[in-house]
Amino acid sequence: MELVLTTHFGNDRYRHADTYEQLGGYAAMRKAFSMPKEEIVAEVRKANLRGRGGAGFPAGVKWGFLPKDLSRPRVLVINADEGEPGTFKDRLIMSRGPHLMIEGIVITSYALTIHNGYVYIRGEFVREAEIVQEAIDEAYAKGYLGKNILGSGYDLEVTVHRGAGAYICGEETSLLNSLEGKRGWPRVKPPFPASVGAFGLPTIVNNVETIADIPWIVTHGGEKFASLGVEKDGGTRLVCVSGPVKKPGVYELPVGISLRSILYEHAGGMQDGKALKAVIPGGSSTPVIRADEIDVGYDIDSMQKIGTMAGSGGVIVIPEGTCMVRALSVLMNFYAHESCGQCTPCREGCGWLARVLRRIENGEGREGDVELILNVCDNMMGRTICPLADAAVMPAQSFIWKFREEFDRHVRDKKCPYGNTF
Amino acid sequence: MSPSFSEATRARFERMLARYPDKEAAILPTLHLAQREFGHLSGEAIDYVATLLGFTPARIEGVATFYTMYNRKPVGKYHLQVCRNLSCSLMGAEHLIEHMSRKLGIKPGGTTADGTFTLSTVECLGSCGTAPVMQVNDDYHEDLTEESIDAILDGLRQEHG
Amino acid sequence: MPNFTINGISVDVPQGTTILEAAKTAGIEIPHYCYHPKLSVAGNCRMCLVEVEKFPKLQIACNTIVTDGMAVKTDSEKVKQAVTGVLEFLLIHHPIDCPICDQAGECGLQIYYMKYGLHKSRYAVEDKVHKKKVQDIGGQIILDAERCILCSRCIRFLQEVTGTGELEFFQRGDHSEISIFPGRPLDNRYTGNLADICPVGALTSKDFRFKCRVWLLRGARSICPGCANGCNVEAHFKEEILYRLKPRQNDEVNKTWMCDPGRLEYKKANEARLLTPVNRENGIPKAAPWEAALSSVAFRLWEMVEKHGPGSVAVIASPQFSNEELFLARKLADEVLRTPHLGFSLRTVGDGFADDFLIKADKNPNTRGAKLLGISEEKFDDIVQNVADGKIRALLVFGNGIADLSDAETGRLLANVPFVVQIATNEGAVSRAAHAILPSASFVERGGTFTNHAGRVQRFWMGFPPRGKARSAIEIITGLANRLGAGWKSGGEAQVFRAIAQSEAPFAGMSYESLGELGQTAGGKG
Fold first, then answer.
1. Residue C246 sits in the same domain as residue C153
2. What pLDDT is stored for residue A1 in this prediction?
3. Does A215 touch chain B (CB under 8 A)?
4. Cβ of A253 under 8 Å from any chain C Cβ?
5. Which of A391, C48, C216, C268 suits A235 as a labelling partner, its CA being 20 to 30 A distant?
6. What is the CATH number of the domain that holds C153?
């Protein structure tokens, strides 16, 4: 099986420039510098590389949104604010192969005539930020960053910017505000970042995994990358499996592989003979599916067809014996905690959902509470500046739609049948 | 006495400042530096950062209270931050939090009387494959069990003397 | 010019108009809280959601620019549901303490609840998030964080208009609140605007606190008399008591703002009023009927002119008076008394503070008007010299003070004059020395025009008739003139203004109609 990213992740020295280079690293950068810029962008378009941060927007198309004129300097921002519950792949790239990301940054910046890059790393990843900073320092020392890279006359500065604890900063405009030293409030669009982004300049925001795929695409060509995946969704993905499976972790797998194969072949199946109850397939914000729905290709379009999403690649495995009310309650506490508080429906709705779920779980649910939740969800969905409200609504609705009986039973019996615990 | 940066921190601050197009962008990194230097971000510390960067203290406070990692109140020498999100909960985080509460004699949000430990629950730390997880100051501790937690806490206590 | 339809009505609007503003031209109200025409767009309250054809999601009208052929609906079921939903969210934590809230009656939550809500509460009272109430945050403002809907208008005002940034959002999610940094209260001279732009009862006026329910107030369009800027205001009163001034939009003068000192100008109409004509007999002030007061003043003036010549009489006008009043004062001096001694005295009042926004150092509303009407400021010193030299036998003083003289200085100066008559609204140094006092109406008890520092002639309207026995200065001056044989026709301010427009070049071509609500700039240099 062809691997794009993780081939050398077992090598502890791979995070250093020397080893990375010995193992073929920075060759793509050299190749890119010999290519016309448009050709690099064309290869990325051909690759059908779709954003790995969650929204799945085609990277090449996104790059095309930059204004054509070069009168205003452009900025590249790497979204390393990995925070979607169930997702832990960017952390792996940054700690095991930071130069993949850096090389991706150099190529992308060169192709798009960008001279300033920022890597926005979530604040909790202190050690990862240190590793990335060390790798950046190495790249500067080798002349792959800074002035006159490879004697091409091209300059690029890259700065690590640490977040400070806010899930919402994974949303790209919130991230930009945070980078600018503001509260992490998503921005009203238009204008979009490609025209007015970081520091008022045209800006591209790409996820770590997305940008780390770029060197391979340049080396092997867009078509080759596309062929690893499915029709409109190319390459491999880092799939994160968590929950009680035998081998939780990050797996690099071809886009489109079946979810069943991810769980039972790669992650080794369920721990301790537990049965599978449900799967949250693409990070906590994606709609939950039942155990009988896992025969589906793990790509953006196939997942969409069954009413859910591949999102950020975070597969959370929920075993039989788990109280779905409690599970949802945990998630709603999370969204209430992370709502930035800007838009009315999200600020008030997330907390409301969390409170009603808490009382249902505690055996204090009232008649009509489940309908109330669904109705509050309707009043939140699609009504806000950013997708955080939707991200809270999707699990809430899907948990109830797929496991309604459990919710009703909590209310009817005035207690949690699972003993009010996990 | 009003707080101020040591010479070493001041030098780091100046180097950091040079990376950004304006002082506003330096607010988050400066708060990180201030917290490291002063332990937590007191009102005086906020005021200091405000003056240093040329903003109103309200502007700085707005940022400091938005992000969970900035501690506006003092925390113990070791800040135990246990993830309570779904993957960790599925792997037993709730029980571990109870275990730690019992062992330390404090509820989440509390600090031990000797100021060694503050116990907090936090949202997803982005390490779900090795759940349950906690962050102690800058470091992650993964695949936690009651036994491994006991060992970690005992080790930290010894370190603290 | 893009053409679009809103609820089926076809409308042309200028390029770049938002749906929210465009809807107004079609007479359609789109509910909103965070949007304010003079502040940047925040787009966070989500009240102005509308349906735009070809957009799968509802769009916010405040940030969506009308394009040609766009079809917008504000009355569909989908929109109604969204608006009701947002309103319900806004109210779940609200303390519903309307009975003790000054905003009641002009509260955006009450108004929209009656229009778009009317839902039963589905939120558990015990789940309400509590926040700090009754916080004195400085300036003229009290903050109640529980009533706040976090629309951010106040924060944007302090960032974009005053540039002082005292208020910020703290915390996040449903614990978000606006606040000052502890120990750093509001520190600007425009804080009262915060209470105006706050759509709910979160920021209310300290001065107006618990004074009067707003639905008992009536309003008169007026001009702030506090300085030469001439901010357009609405004067709010109940019976004969003024309760507050609120800015009235005039983009050429004050947009939708006014300053804090200006807001307190209403007190002048309530406090230390001269409400009855007074004659001083043997040093003792005695109330007199108007007829007697006017006759005796006219007689004394005539007597002085007869005995000592017109040069023994002087008139000190005041730029606190309207163009109409000053015009008649000038006519009285020039044509009736025929004295060369007419001038006006400037009062600076307070610290004489000025900024580059609304506050002018000249604390008089009509200095420019006085100058344009040919009343000289320079002559004032000359008059004072004549008074000091004992050459003035009768002095007519407009207003409650002479320049910035103290009570004692005023007393000493006026002791040189055998007969001092005062026309004024409020007590002051002059009234303590005057031999006759003719009480004039306050700015809300009469109509007229002021000319602001930039030469803009602006009308103010009568809210209620003069209190007590006070009369408009037009009436008083006309009464004196006629008792001195002038034979003026009596008439209101409109007639006087017509005469000004006919004879005074800077005002040529103007009329009350042409001035309208927002005024017009006078020609020539003052």
1. yes
2. 78
3. no
4. no
5. A391
6. 3.30.70.20
Closest CA to C519 of C374, C331, C365, C377: C365
Rounded Cα distance, C208 and C237, in Å: 12
Q: Is A341 on the interface with C (CB under 8 A)?
A: yes
Nearest to C169 among A183, A339, A355 (CB): A183
Q: What is the CATH number of the domain that holds A381?
A: 1.20.1440.230
pLDDT, tens digit, 9 for 90 and up, residues A218-255? 999 999 999 999 999 999 999 999 999 999 999 999 99
Chain A adjacent subunits, 3+ CB pairs under 8 A: B, C
Q: Are residues C252 and C135 in the same domain?
A: yes
Host domain of residue A71: 12-228
- With beta carbons under 8 A apart, name residues in chain B contacting A126: 138-139
Report if residue A1 sits inside a domain. Answer: no
Strand order in the sheet with C49-52: C9-12, C3-6, C71-73, C49-52, C59-60
Q: How far is A342 from chain C (nearest CA, A)?
A: 6
- Asked if A422's CB is within 8 angstroms of B32's CB, the reply is no
CB contact under 8 A, A345 and C85: yes
Q: How far is C150 from chain A (nearest CA, A)?
A: 8
Distance from CA of A335 to the nearest CA of B (A): 10
CB contact under 8 Å between C86 and A344, yes or no, is yes
Residues in A touching B19 (Cβ below 8 Å)? 157, 159
Q: Give dist(CA A230, CA A255) in Å, integer.
A: 6
Pick the last residue of a domain from A206, A228, A250: A228
Residues A33 and A148 in one domain: yes
Would you call B84 an interface residue with chain A, using a CB distance cutoff of 8 Å? yes
Contact present, C407 and C432 (Cβ < 8 Å): yes
All structural domains of chain B: 7-66 (1.10.10.1590), 78-160 (3.40.30.10)
ipTM for the complex?
0.97
Domain match, C263 and C309 both: no
pTM score of the predicted model:
0.95
In tens, the pLDDT along C436-451 reads 999 999 999 999 999 9
Residue numbers of chain C with a pLDDT score lower than 50: 525-526
Residues of B in contact with C183 (CB under 8 A): 43
Overall number of domains in chain C: 3
Q: Is B58 on the interface with C (CB under 8 A)?
A: yes
DSSP string, C125-164: GGGPPP---SEE-STTEEE-GGG-----HHHHHHHHTS--
Q: Do B140 and A164 touch (CB under 8 A)?
A: no
Q: Six-digit token pair at C444? A: 């809300």
Q: Using an 8 Å Cβ cutoff, are A234 and A225 in contact?
A: yes
For residue C207 the two structure tokens come to 């001065």
Q: Are residues A57 and A164 in the same domain?
A: yes
Alpha-carbon distance B90 to A327, whole Å? 8
Q: Does B26 touch chain A (CB under 8 A)?
A: yes
* Strand A154-162 relative to strand A116-121, pairing: parallel
